[in-house]
Amino acid sequence: MRPVLRLAMVLAVSAAGLSAAQPRPATQNPPARAQERLEVPPPPFSEGIFPCSDCHRDLKVNRARRILTDMHADIVLTHDQEHRWCLDCHDAADRDRLHLASGELVPFDQSYLLCGQCHGEKLRDWRAGVHGRRTGEWNGHKSYLLCAHCHNPHQPRFRAMAPKPAPLRPARPPK
Fold first, then answer.
1. pLDDT tens digits for 48-89?
2. 3-class SS at 25?
3. Three-state SS string across 36-96, please?
4. Within 13 A of 119's CA, how many CA atoms are on the CB side?
5. Which tens digits make up the pLDDT trace of 14-44?
6. CA 131 – CA 141 distance, rounded (Å)
7. Core-most of 51, 163, 165, 174, by most CB within 10 Å?
8. Which residues contact 91 (CB under 8 A, 6 or more apart)?
């Protein structure tokens, strides 16, 4: 190989290595909210409770922490119940949406953004397909289940399950 050509190749490889080591400008690293919208099935609402505005439209907002006795009495909040209340996640002005800590409104089909504020490592694993259920192509179209498809957002811990017996080894065919 000619020395000039060899030198040009070495310089090109070195320049590529240097540019890869440089931090990318902010325009090349979009914030998490600017990423594509993930495909998810509709949230698992209880029958007849959505849209929430059907009932909440004319109700006065009551921000007092309390046990619900009239409606939603079946909801028992055990998700950090000492510090959380309904309106920490549900938006008081637009009951058909949730709100992030910043006040930004998000639809229920993007509830993973809300959950990810406190459970960032789970959100990271969920996006990567390690936590939760993701189907689709490894290098293409993907569909995710929302956190609420597996976890009740008001009582997120899985209930204890009785262990099942070990599977039986298949019988070997005769020789």
1. 778 888 778 888 888 777 777 777 767 776 677 677 778 888
2. coil
3. CCCCCCCCCCCCCCCCCHHHHCCCCCCCCCCCCCCCCCCCCCCCCCCCCCHHHCECCCCCC
4. 17
5. 555 544 444 444 444 434 444 556 788 788 7
6. 18
7. 51
8. 97, 98, 99, 105
